[in-house]
Amino acid sequence: MRILIVDDEAPARRRLQDLLAETAPEAAVVGEAADGASALLAWAETRPDLVLLDIRMPLMDGLETARELARMDEPPAVVFVTAYDEHALAAFDLNAVDYLLKPVRKERLALALGKARRFGAERWEQLQRDLPAAPRSHICVRQQGNLRLIPLEEIRCFSADMKYTTLYTAKEEALIDDSLKSLEEEFPDRFLRVHRNALVALAHIVALEKSPAGTLRVRLAGLAEPVEVSRRHASAARQRLRRLEHERGARTP
Description:
The protein is an alpha/beta fold. It folds into 2 domains: about 1-130, Response regulator (Rossmann fold); about 140-250, CATH 2.40.50.1020. It is about 35% helix and about 30% strand. The chain is built from 7 helices and 15 strands. It has helices at about 10-25, 35-45, 60-70, 105-115, 120-130, 180-185, 230-250; strands at about 1-5, 30-35, 50-55, 75-80, 100, 140-145, 145-150, 155-160, 165-170, 175, 190-195, 200, 205-210, 215-220, 225-230. A 5-stranded parallel sheet has the order 2-1-3-4-5, sandwiched between helices. Strands 10-9-8-12-11 form a 5-stranded antiparallel sheet. A hairpin with a 2-residue loop joins strand 8 (about 155-160) and strand 9 (about 165-170). Helix 2 runs parallel beside helix 3 (about 60-70) and helix 3 (about 60-70) crosses helix 5 (about 120-130). The longest helix is centred in the C-terminal third of the chain and has 21 residues, at about 230-250. It comes from Methylogaea oryzae. InterPro entries: CheY-like_superfamily, LytR-like, LytTR_DNA-bd_dom, Sig_transdc_resp-reg_receiver.
């Protein structure tokens, strides 16, 4: 079994290394990571069978990391490792492969490894459905077999063309697997639907303006080209932007 250890504390990672050496000497630790974003990159490089995943970490926590892993082709089994008590983890008892409470004991680690060996695709699908659907902080981009994570706050807009969705930042554009509908449902407070083919980031809206042809469009910070607003979405866009201006004014001292 190939194992990736993910924990933001180096002593905790070393302890798991030592316990694995005692409990499962046939297992190979193929990598370590100190946060969820690094864990996804390490997964892409090492393709482990099992990820021992801490829950509370900086940048991207274990739950968000697990959701991203569930989207991958041939995802690994995941065992959560946490300092939370059993009552706080009751929600994961039937859905995750297993969870280990810190300090991890050898007997529990051995039991978790046994469950991981029996883990299959059907359980991953169940885990993906049942994990709490908290919004992501990053969008995962897959390019030529590599993974990159783009922070949500850098994204200016999403645009759809046929089956493809493209995200735009001030510096780049990238194809992603998510549909506009799923993105709109996941981030209702951060992105506004302005066209059947476009979502724009509320935080980066500079102005709502008319084009020389008389159509409405949104200008976004960092993007040279404005985004067209369809007639169907124009009224809702105006109302939302008026509320946004009011909120921004209320926050200004």
